[in-house]
# Entry
Amino acid sequence: MIVEITDYGSGEVNFVEYSVFGLSGEQMSFLDENLDEKTCIVDDKLLIKAYFDENLYPFASDVAQFRLDDFIAREEIEMSVFLLSFLEDM
# Structure
C-alpha cells in the first residue's frame, strides 16, 4: 500500500486529501464503506479527504512550514499505519 498526500489546506476548513494505491478491490471497498472520512474510489485508487479541527491540523505549526516535506512524510506514514490497522478488522 502506498499513501500520498495529494492536497491540503487550512483556513475556514482544515483538510488533508490522500490517495491510496496498491489495495485490492475488496480492501478499497471495505475502507470506502467503513471509514468515517469522506472517501471515493477512482480507477484503482482510494481517495480519502480528512477534516481537522484547528488544534489537530498536522500542518498548522510554524515548524511544519520550515520542514514541510518531513511533516508530509510523517502524515503519510501515520495514515498508512492507521489504514493497515483498520484493514485488520476486515
